[in-house]
Amino acid sequence: MSEHNQNSNDSILKKPMTRRDVLRLAGTGGLGLLLGGSAVGGMFAAESHRKTEAAKVPSASEDQVPFYGQHQAGIITPAQNFICFAAFDVTASGSNSLQKLFQSWTAAAAAMAEGKQVGEESSNHNLPPVDTGESVGLTPSRLTITFGAGPSLFDDRFGLASKRPPAFKDLPSFNGEQLEPQWCGGDIGVQVCADDMQVAFHAVRNLARIARGKAVLRWVQEGFQRSTQADPTGSTPRNLLGFKDGTVNPDVNSAQDMNKVVWARGNDGAAWMSGGSYMAVRRIRMRIEVWDRSSLKDQENTFGRYRASGAPLGAKNEFDPVDLSAKDEKGNPHIPADSHVALARGDGSIQILRRSYSYSGGIDLKTGQLDAGLLFISYQRDLFKQFVPMQQKLAKSDRLNEYILHVGSAVFACFPGASKGGYIGDTLF
Amino acid sequence: MSEHNQNSNDSILKKPMTRRDVLRLAGTGGLGLLLGGSAVGGMFAAESHRKTEAAKVPSASEDQVPFYGQHQAGIITPAQNFICFAAFDVTASGSNSLQKLFQSWTAAAAAMAEGKQVGEESSNHNLPPVDTGESVGLTPSRLTITFGAGPSLFDDRFGLASKRPPAFKDLPSFNGEQLEPQWCGGDIGVQVCADDMQVAFHAVRNLARIARGKAVLRWVQEGFQRSTQADPTGSTPRNLLGFKDGTVNPDVNSAQDMNKVVWARGNDGAAWMSGGSYMAVRRIRMRIEVWDRSSLKDQENTFGRYRASGAPLGAKNEFDPVDLSAKDEKGNPHIPADSHVALARGDGSIQILRRSYSYSGGIDLKTGQLDAGLLFISYQRDLFKQFVPMQQKLAKSDRLNEYILHVGSAVFACFPGASKGGYIGDTLF
Fold it and tell me: In chain A, whose CA is at the least distance from the CA of B121?
C-alpha cells in the first residue's frame, strides 16, 4: 500500500479490533483516524473512517495528505467530510494536448494538497490571477484529488484505443435504473475531497480553469458526511434514510486486502494501470417522502437491521454477527432474504472498497420533492468481477429499490500514483 | 437583545476592540465566538463571526442555541458553518390549519435545537417513525430554525390581509436581475443553520414532513462557509471571487444597534411584529468564468480593495480606514466611485445585518459552467428603508454587476421569538 496513506497508528488498527476498542484507544488521544467495523454493508455502506476532533491548529501531517506516491491519494485515504466530484469532457484533440493537461493538473493538484495556490502570481496586475484565491489562508484540509480516465478517453481521439484495459468499459444497464444524461459519464473523472467545502470547491474550480481550451466540465456533484465536529464520539454514521450505515469495507491498512480488492496489477491486462484502481460512481436519489411514510417495521425489514441500535434483526447489538440462518419462533428467518444486508453480504466472496457521500441538491423540479441521496463511490481491481455482479444482484432483488433510484453513473480507470517529476497518467502515454 | 444570543463573553466583545484584539483573546482560550471587523461590505459581506476550534466534545451550552426567547434564534446568532434554506407554500386553507402547522413546527424546532428527535417514537412498529432518524447520535450543532411569513401569506386565504405590515410587500424589480421562478418567493421561509450539514438537512426534511397536507416545499438552497475546522486562525473569510469578505455589520452585542437596525417595533405599523425582523434573501450567481478571466487590476478596482491583503486601494493594511477621497499621484481617486466598497458604504447612513452563505450547486445546464455564488441574506427593521435603497444603488452602478447575476429573491417577515407554551407566529393570530 501507499506509504502516504499509511499512518503511524497502523499497528494498533489491525484487525480483529472492534470499533469500540478503537474508540477506547482514541480516547487516550493521539489516534487521529478511526477505522470502522461492519454495519449495514452493500451499496449503502458509507465510510465510517472518521477523524476525532483535532487540537486547535492541526499539524501539517494531520492536515495534509501527500499527493505523490505509489498510489493516488483519495482511494484508501480515510474519507474527508466533503466531496466535490467533477467529470470533464476533453475538447482538445491529440495526445500532446491531453498529456499537457495532465501535467498542468498534476502540478496544480500537488501544490493545492500542500495548501498552496496553483502557481506563482505574476507581478503584472494587468493579467488575470493564476489562482482564484478563495482558499488563501485556509489549511490544506486533507485535500485529495484523484484522477481517472473514462472509457470514452480510449476512442480514436488520442491514439489510446489500444491502451484500453480489456475489462474496462461502460457499465451494463441495471434493472430499474433511470439514468439522466446530465449525471452520467465523462472522459475524465476527478474526485476531490477535503475537510473544508471551500477548499474542495476551490480545487475543482481551478482544475476547470486550467483545463480551459482542453476540457470542459460535464457534471459536478457536491456531497457531505456528518461532520467530525458534530460527532466527536465517532459512533457509526447514519445515512439519509436514518439507518446506521457502517461498512463491510476491507481493511485499508492491510496491503494484502488492498492488493486483492482495490489495486489493479500489470498482469490484469493493462500494464499502465498497475497500482491504479477502477472507480464506480452512482448518483442514487432517495425517495425520501415514500420512505418516510413507510412503517418502522418495513424500514427495518428493508435494511435487515433495527434502526435504533443498528443490530441485525434477531440480534441485540450493533456489532453482533449477521446470521442469515437465524429464525424466529415461527421458523421464519429474522433477516429477510431480500433485505439489503442479506443481498449485499451474499456469500462474502465479493468485496469492494466504498467511499460514498450523502448529497442534498435542493428540490427536484419535476416532483417538488427533496433531491437528496447518496453519491455512491467504490474502488475495485476489476469492475466486472466485483461491482457489476454485486449491483446486478441488488438491482434485481433488493427491497431497498422501492425507495431509491439510480439516476447517475460513471466509471473511471484511476491511474497509479505519480512520482515527483512525473505526472498523473504518465504511464498511459 | 435576546438573552439566548448573549454569551458570557459579551463584556470582552464590546467595541472598540479590533479583530486582532479579539483574536489575541481567543488565543487565551474560552472565547468561543469571534466577532469580525469591517472589510469589503455591501451585498458581498459574508459574516465573519466564527467559532474557534472547540475542545473534543462541545459542552451543551457551546453546542446549543436555545429556541425560545424574546427574538428568534438565527438572526443575531453568530453564523454557523452550514445553511439549508427552505421556502414553503401553504396548501391548506384557513387560519386554523396554519396555526396548527406553526404549533407543530414550534414543538419540533424546539426539540431539534436541543439535539432531540422531533417527537417520541411509538411502540407500534407498524407505524412510520415520528422522526426520520438521520441525526440520532449527532450533537445539536448550534442548530437554529428561523421562521418568516412571505407577503403572499397575507392574501385572502387565512384572513390575514389586515395584518400585513404596511411596509412589507414584494421587492421592486432591480436593474439587471434575471429572476428565475424556482428560486423566488414562498408563503413561509425557514432559515435552518447548523455546524453540521446533516443536522441542517434533517431539520428541513422533518419540517417538510410535518407540513404534509398543509404546506409543500417551494425551493431549497444549501450553503456553506469555509469551516472553522479548516481555518482555526480566524482570519477574514474570502468569498468565491477570492476576495476577503469581512463585514460592515452592526455590532450584534449592542442592543442599541440591533434595535436601530434589526428589530421591528410595535409602532412600526404591525404590533405582532414587535421583536421580529424582516429578511431579504437573494440567490446571486457568480459569473465565475468571466471573473477568472479578468485581470487582477480589474478585480481590485471592482471591489475597491487589494485581493492579497484586503486593504482598501491606496492603503496598506486590511483594517485601514476606507478613504473615498484619497487620491493617487495623478489626482485620481484610489478607490473608484463605482467600486463595490464605495457604493455599499455610501454615506454610512443605511445599515443592514448580513448573514450570507456561499453556495455551489453543480453546473448550470444551460451554460455548462459552475452554478456557484452567494445566498445573500440580510435582516433589517424595514426592507424599504434599508435593503431596497442599498440594492437599488448597487443594481444601478456597482462594477461587480458584470460578474454577478441575481437569480432568486424572497422576503419574509420573521416573527418575534416564542415563549415556552407559545408558538412561532402566535402574535399574528
Answer: A296
What is the DSSP secondary-structure string of A212-251? TTTEEEEEEEEEE---TTT-TT-PPPB-TTSSB-------
Residues of A in contact with B115 (CB under 8 A): none
Buried residues in B20-47 as b, exposed as e (16+ CB within 10 A): eebbebbeeeebbbbbbbbbbbbbbbbb
Q: Which residue of chain B has the CA closest to A194?
A: B230
Q: What is the ipTM of this complex?
A: 0.86
Q: Read off the pLDDT of residues A2-57 as tens digits, 9 standing for 90 and up.
A: 334 333 333 333 333 333 332 333 222 222 222 222 344 556 643 333 333 333 45
Q: Taking CB atoms and an 8 Å cutoff, what residues of chain A touch B295?
A: 125-128
SS3 B292: helix
Beta carbons of B363 and A297 less than 8 Å apart: no
CB-closest option in B205, B292, B358 to A128: B292
pLDDT of residue B267: 87
CB B230 within 8 A of CB A195: yes
Q: Is the pTM of this model over 0.90?
A: no
Distance from CA of B361 to the nearest CA of A (A): 7
> How many angstroms separate the CA atoms of A390 and B279, rounded?
50
How far lies A198's CA from each of A54, A108, A128, A140, B382, in Å?
19, 16, 21, 11, 33
C-beta atoms of B220 and A135 within 8 A: no
Of B381, B131, B391, nearest to B274 by C-alpha is B381
Q: Domain segments of chain B: what residues?
A: 3-54, 60-428
Q: Please report, rounded to a whole number, the percentage of residues in chain B having pLDDT higher than 90.
A: 72
Contact call for A368 and B219, based on CB within 8 A: no
Q: Are B328 and B314 in contact (CB under 8 A)?
A: yes
Q: For residue range B331-372, what is the model confidence (pLDDT) as tens digits?
A: 999 999 999 999 988 888 899 999 999 999 999 988 999 999
Nearest CA in chain B to A54: B56
Return the beta strands (E) in B320-403 as ranges.
Answer: 353-354, 357-363, 370-380
Contacts of B386 (CB under 8 A, 6+ apart): B261, B350, B351, B352, B380
pLDDT given at position A133: 93
Closest partner residue to A238 (CB to CB) among B57, B133, B232 is B133
Q: Which residue has the cell 425560545?
A: B68
C-alpha cell at A396: 434485481
Residue B268: DSSP 8-state: G
A67 CA: distance to closest CA in chain B (Å): 19
Residue in B86, B2, B9, B109 with CA at minimum distance from that of residue B49: B9
pLDDT tens-digit map of B371-383: 999 999 999 999 9
